[in-house]
Design goal:
Elements (H helix, E strand, L loop, with lengths): L6 E5 L7 H4 L9 H4 L2 H9 L6 E4 L6 H14 L5 E4 L4 H4 L2 H9 L2 E4 L4 H8 L3 H12 L3 E5 L1 H4 L4 E6 L10 E5 L7 E4 L8 H10 L4 E5 L3 E6 L3 E6 L3 E5 L5 E2 L12 E2 L2 E5 L4 E3 L4 E3 L15
Length: 296
Protein backbone atom coordinates (compact mmCIF):
# COMPACT_ATOMS: atom_id res chain seq x y z
CA UNK A 1 0.00 0.00 0.00
CA UNK A 2 1.36 3.41 -1.00
CA UNK A 3 2.67 5.55 1.85
CA UNK A 4 1.16 9.03 1.47
CA UNK A 5 3.62 11.91 1.11
CA UNK A 6 1.19 14.45 2.50
CA UNK A 7 0.18 15.30 6.06
CA UNK A 8 -3.10 15.31 7.94
CA UNK A 9 -3.80 17.69 10.82
CA UNK A 10 -6.96 16.68 12.67
CA UNK A 11 -8.15 19.24 15.25
CA UNK A 12 -10.71 18.59 17.97
CA UNK A 13 -12.19 22.09 17.78
CA UNK A 14 -11.64 25.13 19.95
CA UNK A 15 -13.56 26.04 23.08
CA UNK A 16 -16.85 27.80 22.39
CA UNK A 17 -16.52 27.02 18.72
CA UNK A 18 -18.32 24.28 16.76
CA UNK A 19 -21.85 24.13 18.15
CA UNK A 20 -21.76 27.72 19.34
CA UNK A 21 -20.72 28.84 15.89
CA UNK A 22 -23.52 26.81 14.38
CA UNK A 23 -25.97 28.67 16.60
CA UNK A 24 -24.62 31.90 15.17
CA UNK A 25 -22.63 33.07 18.18
CA UNK A 26 -19.26 34.16 16.83
CA UNK A 27 -16.43 34.53 19.31
CA UNK A 28 -13.81 36.07 17.05
CA UNK A 29 -11.27 36.50 19.81
CA UNK A 30 -11.77 33.07 21.31
CA UNK A 31 -10.08 30.97 18.66
CA UNK A 32 -8.08 29.10 21.26
CA UNK A 33 -6.40 26.62 18.95
CA UNK A 34 -4.93 29.67 17.18
CA UNK A 35 -3.67 31.12 20.46
CA UNK A 36 -2.10 27.82 21.46
CA UNK A 37 -0.24 27.34 18.23
CA UNK A 38 -2.18 24.82 16.16
CA UNK A 39 -2.83 27.27 13.34
CA UNK A 40 0.86 28.22 13.49
CA UNK A 41 1.72 24.54 13.09
CA UNK A 42 -0.60 24.24 10.09
CA UNK A 43 1.12 27.21 8.44
CA UNK A 44 4.58 25.81 9.20
CA UNK A 45 3.74 22.38 7.79
CA UNK A 46 2.20 24.00 4.69
CA UNK A 47 5.42 25.86 3.92
CA UNK A 48 5.42 29.05 5.98
CA UNK A 49 3.63 32.38 5.96
CA UNK A 50 3.56 32.56 2.16
CA UNK A 51 1.80 29.20 1.86
CA UNK A 52 -1.44 29.15 -0.09
CA UNK A 53 -4.26 27.88 2.14
CA UNK A 54 -7.84 27.23 1.04
CA UNK A 55 -10.45 27.05 3.81
CA UNK A 56 -13.52 25.00 2.85
CA UNK A 57 -16.62 26.05 4.82
CA UNK A 58 -18.99 23.42 3.41
CA UNK A 59 -19.72 21.76 6.75
CA UNK A 60 -20.96 24.98 8.33
CA UNK A 61 -24.44 26.53 8.12
CA UNK A 62 -22.90 29.98 8.60
CA UNK A 63 -20.03 29.80 6.09
CA UNK A 64 -19.39 33.51 5.61
CA UNK A 65 -18.98 34.21 9.32
CA UNK A 66 -16.74 31.18 9.71
CA UNK A 67 -14.68 32.20 6.68
CA UNK A 68 -14.08 35.69 8.05
CA UNK A 69 -13.10 34.19 11.38
CA UNK A 70 -10.37 32.11 9.76
CA UNK A 71 -9.11 34.96 7.60
CA UNK A 72 -8.74 37.06 10.74
CA UNK A 73 -7.01 34.26 12.69
CA UNK A 74 -4.52 33.37 9.96
CA UNK A 75 -3.85 37.06 9.39
CA UNK A 76 -2.85 37.51 13.02
CA UNK A 77 0.02 35.07 12.55
CA UNK A 78 1.15 36.72 9.32
CA UNK A 79 -0.39 34.30 6.84
CA UNK A 80 -2.33 36.35 4.30
CA UNK A 81 -2.35 34.00 1.29
CA UNK A 82 -5.54 32.43 2.67
CA UNK A 83 -8.75 32.10 0.67
CA UNK A 84 -12.24 30.78 1.38
CA UNK A 85 -14.13 28.23 -0.71
CA UNK A 86 -17.88 28.40 -0.08
CA UNK A 87 -19.11 25.16 -1.65
CA UNK A 88 -22.73 24.63 -0.62
CA UNK A 89 -23.85 21.75 -2.85
CA UNK A 90 -22.61 19.15 -5.33
CA UNK A 91 -23.04 21.54 -8.24
CA UNK A 92 -20.67 24.02 -6.59
CA UNK A 93 -18.11 21.22 -6.11
CA UNK A 94 -17.89 20.82 -9.90
CA UNK A 95 -16.97 24.47 -10.58
CA UNK A 96 -13.70 24.77 -12.48
CA UNK A 97 -12.58 27.75 -10.39
CA UNK A 98 -12.63 25.69 -7.19
CA UNK A 99 -10.98 22.71 -8.86
CA UNK A 100 -8.12 24.89 -10.12
CA UNK A 101 -7.65 26.50 -6.71
CA UNK A 102 -7.46 23.14 -4.97
CA UNK A 103 -4.90 21.99 -7.55
CA UNK A 104 -2.62 24.95 -6.80
CA UNK A 105 -2.78 25.48 -3.02
CA UNK A 106 -0.36 24.10 -0.43
CA UNK A 107 -3.01 23.27 2.15
CA UNK A 108 -6.75 22.73 2.35
CA UNK A 109 -8.57 23.17 5.65
CA UNK A 110 -12.10 21.93 6.33
CA UNK A 111 -14.06 23.94 8.90
CA UNK A 112 -16.39 22.59 11.56
CA UNK A 113 -20.11 22.04 11.29
CA UNK A 114 -21.81 18.87 10.06
CA UNK A 115 -19.49 16.15 8.74
CA UNK A 116 -22.32 14.53 6.80
CA UNK A 117 -22.45 17.63 4.61
CA UNK A 118 -18.83 16.99 3.67
CA UNK A 119 -19.34 13.38 2.64
CA UNK A 120 -22.65 13.88 0.80
CA UNK A 121 -21.40 16.91 -1.12
CA UNK A 122 -17.84 15.80 -1.96
CA UNK A 123 -18.19 12.03 -2.29
CA UNK A 124 -17.37 10.90 -5.83
CA UNK A 125 -16.41 14.38 -7.06
CA UNK A 126 -13.28 15.40 -8.92
CA UNK A 127 -12.70 17.97 -6.18
CA UNK A 128 -12.24 15.17 -3.64
CA UNK A 129 -10.29 12.99 -6.07
CA UNK A 130 -7.73 15.80 -6.53
CA UNK A 131 -7.31 16.27 -2.78
CA UNK A 132 -6.86 12.52 -2.24
CA UNK A 133 -4.35 12.25 -5.09
CA UNK A 134 -2.31 15.25 -3.94
CA UNK A 135 -2.24 13.87 -0.38
CA UNK A 136 -0.89 10.55 -1.67
CA UNK A 137 1.73 11.95 -4.05
CA UNK A 138 2.78 15.42 -2.84
CA UNK A 139 3.85 17.26 0.31
CA UNK A 140 0.27 18.47 0.63
CA UNK A 141 -1.42 19.34 3.93
CA UNK A 142 -5.04 18.51 4.74
CA UNK A 143 -6.29 20.10 7.96
CA UNK A 144 -9.72 19.90 9.52
CA UNK A 145 -11.33 21.02 12.74
CA UNK A 146 -14.27 19.34 14.49
CA UNK A 147 -16.47 18.00 11.65
CA UNK A 148 -13.57 18.60 9.26
CA UNK A 149 -11.43 16.25 11.35
CA UNK A 150 -14.12 13.61 11.83
CA UNK A 151 -14.62 13.30 8.07
CA UNK A 152 -10.95 12.58 7.33
CA UNK A 153 -11.08 8.83 7.89
CA UNK A 154 -12.65 6.12 5.77
CA UNK A 155 -14.98 5.22 8.67
CA UNK A 156 -16.84 8.22 10.09
CA UNK A 157 -19.16 8.86 13.02
CA UNK A 158 -21.96 11.12 11.83
CA UNK A 159 -24.38 10.98 14.75
CA UNK A 160 -24.50 9.84 18.36
CA UNK A 161 -25.92 11.35 21.54
CA UNK A 162 -23.14 11.15 24.15
CA UNK A 163 -25.57 10.46 26.99
CA UNK A 164 -26.96 7.37 25.22
CA UNK A 165 -23.84 6.19 23.41
CA UNK A 166 -23.44 3.19 25.72
CA UNK A 167 -26.60 1.73 24.14
CA UNK A 168 -26.48 -0.28 20.93
CA UNK A 169 -27.65 1.63 17.87
CA UNK A 170 -27.16 5.12 19.29
CA UNK A 171 -23.94 5.74 17.33
CA UNK A 172 -24.30 6.13 13.56
CA UNK A 173 -21.40 5.37 11.24
CA UNK A 174 -20.90 5.91 7.52
CA UNK A 175 -18.09 6.35 4.98
CA UNK A 176 -15.88 9.42 5.39
CA UNK A 177 -13.67 11.27 2.91
CA UNK A 178 -11.13 8.45 2.94
CA UNK A 179 -7.84 10.21 3.58
CA UNK A 180 -6.83 7.59 6.16
CA UNK A 181 -7.81 3.97 6.73
CA UNK A 182 -7.85 2.12 10.02
CA UNK A 183 -8.89 5.03 12.26
CA UNK A 184 -12.05 6.75 13.49
CA UNK A 185 -11.88 10.39 14.63
CA UNK A 186 -14.11 12.02 17.21
CA UNK A 187 -13.92 15.68 18.26
CA UNK A 188 -14.77 17.90 21.26
CA UNK A 189 -14.01 14.68 23.03
CA UNK A 190 -13.76 15.28 26.75
CA UNK A 191 -15.93 18.40 26.99
CA UNK A 192 -18.89 16.68 25.37
CA UNK A 193 -18.31 13.32 27.07
CA UNK A 194 -17.85 11.28 23.91
CA UNK A 195 -15.79 8.36 25.22
CA UNK A 196 -18.70 5.88 25.06
CA UNK A 197 -19.52 7.10 21.55
CA UNK A 198 -16.03 6.36 20.29
CA UNK A 199 -15.90 3.09 22.23
CA UNK A 200 -19.06 1.86 20.49
CA UNK A 201 -17.70 2.92 17.09
CA UNK A 202 -14.45 1.03 17.75
CA UNK A 203 -16.23 -2.05 19.11
CA UNK A 204 -18.24 -2.17 15.88
CA UNK A 205 -15.02 -1.70 13.86
CA UNK A 206 -12.27 -3.26 16.02
CA UNK A 207 -9.74 -3.09 13.20
CA UNK A 208 -9.84 0.70 13.62
CA UNK A 209 -8.00 2.87 16.14
CA UNK A 210 -10.27 5.44 17.76
CA UNK A 211 -8.82 8.95 18.07
CA UNK A 212 -10.64 11.22 20.52
CA UNK A 213 -9.56 14.83 20.00
CA UNK A 214 -10.01 17.30 22.83
CA UNK A 215 -10.59 21.02 22.40
CA UNK A 216 -7.53 23.07 21.45
CA UNK A 217 -5.88 19.77 20.52
CA UNK A 218 -4.96 17.94 17.37
CA UNK A 219 -3.01 15.13 15.77
CA UNK A 220 -0.38 15.72 13.09
CA UNK A 221 -0.25 12.56 10.99
CA UNK A 222 2.64 11.76 8.66
CA UNK A 223 3.19 8.77 6.37
CA UNK A 224 -0.41 7.79 7.07
CA UNK A 225 0.78 6.21 10.31
CA UNK A 226 2.80 8.38 12.69
CA UNK A 227 0.61 10.60 14.87
CA UNK A 228 1.95 13.46 16.99
CA UNK A 229 -0.28 15.17 19.57
CA UNK A 230 -0.27 18.97 19.29
CA UNK A 231 -2.05 21.71 21.24
CA UNK A 232 -2.97 21.93 24.91
CA UNK A 233 -5.49 19.18 25.56
CA UNK A 234 -5.56 15.40 25.54
CA UNK A 235 -5.84 13.00 22.65
CA UNK A 236 -7.41 9.73 23.76
CA UNK A 237 -6.55 6.60 21.77
CA UNK A 238 -9.07 3.74 21.91
CA UNK A 239 -7.73 0.44 20.57
CA UNK A 240 -10.10 -2.49 20.10
CA UNK A 241 -7.72 -4.97 18.46
CA UNK A 242 -7.41 -7.06 21.62
CA UNK A 243 -11.05 -7.02 22.68
CA UNK A 244 -11.88 -10.46 24.11
CA UNK A 245 -15.62 -10.09 24.57
CA UNK A 246 -18.22 -7.86 22.93
CA UNK A 247 -21.98 -8.30 22.97
CA UNK A 248 -22.62 -5.69 20.28
CA UNK A 249 -23.60 -8.13 17.54
CA UNK A 250 -26.01 -10.15 19.68
CA UNK A 251 -28.03 -7.72 21.77
CA UNK A 252 -31.18 -5.86 20.62
CA UNK A 253 -30.98 -2.15 19.81
CA UNK A 254 -31.20 0.03 22.89
CA UNK A 255 -29.44 -2.44 25.19
CA UNK A 256 -26.19 -1.53 27.01
CA UNK A 257 -22.85 -2.64 25.61
CA UNK A 258 -20.50 -5.11 27.25
CA UNK A 259 -16.86 -4.90 26.11
CA UNK A 260 -13.77 -6.55 27.62
CA UNK A 261 -10.13 -5.54 27.15
CA UNK A 262 -10.52 -2.24 25.33
CA UNK A 263 -7.13 -0.49 25.45
CA UNK A 264 -6.94 3.25 26.12
CA UNK A 265 -3.97 5.64 25.87
CA UNK A 266 -3.78 9.34 26.75
CA UNK A 267 -1.51 11.46 24.56
CA UNK A 268 -0.39 14.92 25.66
CA UNK A 269 1.51 17.42 23.52
CA UNK A 270 4.53 15.75 21.93
CA UNK A 271 3.38 12.21 22.65
CA UNK A 272 2.49 10.07 19.70
CA UNK A 273 1.02 6.85 18.43
CA UNK A 274 1.88 4.54 15.55
CA UNK A 275 -1.30 3.21 14.00
CA UNK A 276 -0.02 0.10 12.22
CA UNK A 277 2.16 -0.96 15.14
CA UNK A 278 -0.52 0.12 17.66
CA UNK A 279 2.17 1.53 19.94
CA UNK A 280 2.33 4.61 22.16
CA UNK A 281 5.37 6.86 21.60
CA UNK A 282 6.46 9.09 24.46
CA UNK A 283 8.33 11.60 22.30
CA UNK A 284 6.98 11.83 18.76
CA UNK A 285 7.50 15.60 18.44
CA UNK A 286 10.42 17.82 19.39
CA UNK A 287 8.91 18.53 22.80
CA UNK A 288 6.60 16.74 25.17
CA UNK A 289 4.63 17.78 28.24
CA UNK A 290 7.07 19.08 30.89
CA UNK A 291 7.76 16.69 33.75
CA UNK A 292 7.73 18.25 37.22
CA UNK A 293 10.95 17.30 38.97
CA UNK A 294 10.93 19.64 41.98
CA UNK A 295 8.28 17.85 44.02
CA UNK A 296 9.41 16.43 47.38
Amino acid sequence: MQIPKGKLIAIGGAEDKGSDLEKGAIFRNNLNFFELGILRRIVAEAGGSDASIEVVTTASTIPYEVGENYLDAFGKIGCTNVHIIHIRNREDAQKQEYIERIQQCNCVMFSGGNQLRLTTIFGGTRFLDIIQERYRTENFVIAGTSAGAMAMSSTMIYEGNATRAHLKGEVKITTGLGFMDGVIFDSHFEKRGRFARLAQAVSANPSCIGIGLGEDTGMLITQGNNMEAIGSGPVIIVDGHDVKHSNLADIPEGNPLSIENLHVHFCAKGNGFKVKERTFVELMGEHTTPVMTDIY
